[in-house]
Amino acid sequence: MAYRFKTKLKWSDVTPKADYLNRRKLMAGAGAMVLGAGAARAFSSRVEVEPEQEPAKIVRAKLKTVPSAFSTDEKPNSREEISSYNNFYEFGTSKSDPSRNAGGLMTDPWSITIDGLVDKPGSYDLAELVQGIELEERIYRLRCVEAWSMVVPWAGFELGRILERVGVQSGAKYVAFETLVRPSEMPGQRSRVIDWPYREGLRLDEAMHPLTILATGIYGETIPNQCGAPIRLVVPWKYGFKSIKSIVRISLTDKQPKTTWNEIGPNEYGFYANVNPEVDHPRWSQASERRIGDGVFAKRRDTLPFNGYGEEVASLYKGMDLRKFY
Ligand SMILES: Nc1nc2c(c(=O)[nH]1)N[C@H]1C(S)=C(S)[C@@H](COP(=O)(O)O)O[C@H]1N2
Ligand SMILES: [Mo]
Which tens digit of pLDDT belongs to each residue from 198-238? Predict the structure, then answer.
């Protein structure tokens, strides 16, 4: 199909007819399935639909991915670990809240506003925005500022691909991101623990770095809601809070944007937030970490500078005092 920005893609345009009818029947049979149809449709251009027969559950769609040389050969955490131990304050502040509360999030239709210093600002339907972009499997370490870590097999693509599509103007120096605000489906947003929306940002060269991806899947399937469906940022050399979930807005700016955790605790959470074992959090050491899935008596692992991605990214910070710009 020709690439067109302005035309609304329909499920029926991109799915073989038999699957389409099959899915409709399935949706009619279980009202709650409507929720799940969403994520699948958003990526339907590359999706082989395999709706599961579980009632009231997200329909998981398989994604086609190609391997990437950026993947670690460390053993990935299990799907169960990755989707049951989460930080996603929009659904509550404890690690088990997101998996319990995120099932009702409607991820389709989904649009992303791209604005600021770009040639083609606008509100883009996600399916159209990502159409034709090949998904890669990127197996990355994720290091939370709370000193736990995981290894996640993401499906995604370089953020730079999208930025190129909309045309970054020469004055742009930073990229700002915002998460959806929808308290009716995000129960954590009914309390003011955070000044919603959750906000994050990167310097433009960080955003354009090939390690920086937008992820739409995990383990070769559409991303679970609690992990940031339908699309979230992944910046593997930075603390996890930079990897903002369920993105609805991307703005190119000439000033460093305000970011949620940096605003909440400027002495504890930097804008840069590069993983650094030598700069402790004021309340705990960052020298080591607990890998989720390791037994409670397992030895903690040493935390690596830039989370082990220093060879790729250290040059971005030449001349900066990484103790000051933490
Ligand atoms: N919108 C939003 N994005 C977010 C968060 C959040 O609370 N809200 N938590 C962050 C933190 S602290 C971490 S460690 C990672 C966790 O990602 P995971 O739950 O997929 O492991 O998501 C980040 N992205
Ligand atoms: Mo985190």
Answer: 999 999 999 999 999 999 999 999 999 999 999 999 999 99
Residue 3 domain-assigned? Answer: no
pTM: 0.85
Q: 97 lies in which domain range?
A: 8-267
CATH of the domain at 39: 3.90.420.10
Does residue 305 lie within any of the structural domains? no
The count of structural domains within the chain is 1
Mutating to test ligand 1, I would choose from 81, 85, 87 the residue with most ligand atoms within 8 A of its C-beta, which is 87
d(CA 10, CA 12): 5
Question: Which ligand gives the minimal distance to the CA of 186?
Answer: 1
